[in-house]
Design a protein that fits this description.
- The structure is a single chain.
- By secondary structure, the chain is an all-alpha fold.
- The longest helix has 15 residues.
């Protein structure tokens, strides 16, 4: 077994996050990005570290609201729009950026603010026109998925951009994704469900037969062992719940 030192203590971690919040880290972290929107180009390692710190801190109590008041939505938007090629040129930066956007999308005010800042339309364009490595695709889809939670305006933007069609095409072309990249498939399916929740979104999933076939093939591709474990409630198989 692992020693206590080897295993992270959730209570201690939460205490650290609370201490960071009391220390007021939201404004300085935001400020670093606001004055350096081109940081990914000038110092990509620092950009990754800063964005990961923002994502890590954002799970703490009151952090998302604290970052909202500090202007973090605008700061992340500035980084995203400063270089739309980030997913290809700096995938590690793009992953950390998308993850931070996903974390900050936890409250409705930020989901709406990201739309006003042009982030939603930018992500829609990237998702429908670019190709990504699986890790970057997962982070991007996490952001898109979170931005569509109970937000009809964002659901509509993604629907009109053809996101559903792009995801169905990807699933149809890669039925083995359910077995090889289950977390990615889970986010694909979440996005499709959220888009289908609105009438305009449902009609944007143009080919019902193709969609049904793609989803059926995904289901059939899930290893029987993993599917059985998931149905039995095995925690190790939670990632197969797509």
């Amino acid at each position: 077994g692992k020693s206590r030192e080897d295993s992270p203590d959730p209570d201690h971690h939460q205490a650290n996050l609370s201490a960071l919040a009391r220390a007021g880290v939201f404004a300085p972290l935001t400020g670093l990005l606001l004055v350096n929107p081109a940081l990914p180009a000038t110092d990509p390692k620092l950009a990754v570290a800063l964005l990961r710190a923002i994502g890590g801190v954002s799970v703490g109590p009151g952090a998302v609201e604290g970052f909202r008041r500090a202007g973090m939505v605008g700061a992340l938007a500035a980084v995203l729009t400063a270089d739309p090629t980030l997913p290809r040129s700096q995938p590690a930066v793009a992953q950390a950026l998308f993850a931070a956007i996903a974390s900050l999308s936890a409250i409705p005010a930020n989901r709406e603010a990201f739309a006003r800042a042009g982030v939603v339309s930018q992500l829609a364009t990237q998702l429908t026109s670019d190709t990504f490595d699986p890790d970057t695709a997962l982070c991007l889809c996490l952001a898109v998925s979170n931005l569509t939670v109970e937000c009809q305006a964002n659901q509509t933007t993604f629907a009109r951009a053809g996101v559903a069609r792009r995801l169905v095409d990807a699933l149809a072309a890669n039925p083995s994704l359910a077995a090889t990249k289950p977390l990615l498939v889970r986010e694909f399916c979440k996005i499709l469900v959220r888009i289908a929740e609105i009438p305009e979104g449902a009609s944007s999933i143009i080919d019902p037969a193709k969609t049904s076939t793609a989803l059926a093939n995904l289901f059939l591709a899930i290893p029987t062992r993993a599917l059985s474990a998931s149905m039995a409630g095995d925690n190790d198989a939670d990632q197969m719940n797509a």
